[in-house]
Amino acid sequence: MDWDALIRPELAPMVAYAPGLRASQVRERSGRDRIHKLSSNENPYGPVPAALEAMQAVLPRLNVYSDGAAAALRRRLGEHLGVDPAYVVVSNGSNELLRIIAQCVLDPEDECVFPWPSFVVYPMVTQLMGATAVRVPLAEGDVHDLDAMLAAITERTKLLFLCNPNNPTGTIYTKSAFDAFLAQVPEDVLIVIDEAYFEYVCSDEYPNGLDYFSADGRIVVLRTFSKIYSLAGARVGYGVMPPALVDAVGKVREPFNVNTVGQIGAYYSLSDGAEVERRRRENQEQKTYLYSCFDRLGISYVPSETNFVWVHTKKPVEVFEALLSEGVIIRDFGAASALRVGIGSPEDTDATVAAFEAVVAKLGSL
Ligand SMILES: Cc1ncc(COP(=O)(O)O)c(C=O)c1O
Q: Is residue 266 within 8 Å of residue 223, measured between CB atoms?
């Protein structure tokens, strides 16, 4: 078999998604029992109790397919978000919707504009379709450079990804900046706002993407149950989108793309607003404490609206490795002179601080 002739050439330059290290891999390497995995922006508390109970209860019924239309979950999401369930699509993680939307709209001659660094899946799904990925560098302060994004739009631009808050920097663009931006984006460009960390945001300046959604508009809002709801392993995300795109996504997605356990878990997760609020508050407290420790240690960081913090360093490889040997897994970004440090439980934060203290003692200024 001539595999090069067989496999689409668009795949050649692509790099497979590389997940953060798993605790078991680092346990072996560091020889430590207690590993703090802060590399994938997961929530440390697990599914809320009502979700866990409902997911356990459904296990004996996994002989039947999931509800392919995810009707109950979409109805519940509609109530929760205040939108017509007809505009809600659920997916196998919001990752899946990023791909499906790219499959629905991008042809090889098209361009897709997004900020950079940002979520690594945006270039992946663009390349998958053979379209051109237009990476727009972040501005000073590691925020979206919305003016530069406008300037990057051409008549070939079909799709724009925004990541608010941005992964990996944790920064947001503000309402006023977004209003000005939106007024200038050509009408024929689809705008996908990825709000995977929506529930962690505390800033009053944050524009809730759903406030900008309308059925006859061209805005899509994506969110996920993987983060504050702590259901990353169950793979449930969702999007709110205009009906023509709902129809197109329905043609591209697999039948039964969201499994029964995930649908049930997500449904019941929405019943525990108090726990979500507690998680948001605690995350904010952990970040404030971490900032004060970083200030004390002379570590440069970017204030974040998420459950992770972007830390600048001239020695990313050394810092990453040194933290690993302290039992703390964070996320490195290859050549970037920064690392992403996840926020977990207070115990995780104490371990992070102790690990950074040890690393500063070993490496000097970071
Ligand atoms: C910005 C952003 N979007 C989307 C996702 C995908 O999340 P999931 O597929 O778990 O819903 C992630 C996950 O890390 C993310 O950081």
A: no
Helix/strand/coil percentages in the chain, nearest 5: 45, 15, 40
C-alpha 361 – ligand 1 centre gap (Å):
34
Strands 338-342 and 331-332: antiparallel
| Cα–Cα distance measured from residue 16 to residue 28, given in angstroms and rounded to the nearest whole number | 25
Q: Whose CA is nearest to atom 3 of ligand 1?
A: 196
257 lines ligand 1 (CB under 6 A): no
CA of 3 to the centre of ligand 1 (A): 31
pLDDT tens for each residue of 342-359? 999 999 999 999 999 999
Q: Answer whether 164 contacts ligand 1 (Cβ < 6 A).
A: no
Q: Measure the CA angle with vertex 62, ends 60 and 63; round to 5°.
A: 100
The pLDDT tens digits for 51-65 are: 999 999 999 999 999
Angle, alpha carbons 51-55-57 (nearest 5°): 120
